[in-house]
Specification:
Helix content is 49%, strand content 5%. It is mainly alpha-helical. It has 2 domains: 52 residues; 40 residues, no CATH class. The radius of gyration is 22 Å and the shape is elongated. The model has no long low-confidence stretch (mean pLDDT 77).
């Protein structure tokens, strides 16, 4: 058993680094699956002699529409760097662990400066 004065890392922190499936937004998954299916359709169209131009045009317009949906559907939450729970954008303190997000942002400004 760990001594009382040491802090144990939250269980989420260890699991974040061992994910096999990326934690993407739903719109990102839709865009990736659409591109994969379109690529398979394009390869089968080249082999089968189907109109490749039509497949590329459908792929292009589908990608543009889904790309716009992806841009519009930004997440309303961000991940707490300490416990991994979702924190609504605009809040400065995590409700789960009490981590001060404003202070962490002030200490590590984004984007990082390239000056030494």
């Amino acid at each position: 058993m760990a001594p009382a004065n040491t802090q144990m890392p939250p269980p989420h922190a260890a699991l974040r680094h061992r994910r096999f499936v990326p934690r993407w937004r739903k719109a990102t998954w839709v865009l990736a699956v659409f591109n994969l299916l379109s690529l398979i359709w394009l390869v089968s169209g080249i082999v089968g002699g189907v109109g490749v131009t039509m497949i590329v045009v459908i792929w292009f317009f589908g990608f543009v529409v889904l790309g716009l949906v992806w841009l519009v559907s930004r997440p309303r939450y961000r991940e707490c760097p300490q416990c991994g729970s979702d924190v609504k954008k605009g809040l400065t303190v995590c409700r789960s662990c009490g981590f001060d997000l404003a202070q962490a942002t002030a200490q590590n400004p984004w984007p990082p400066t390239l000056l030494p």
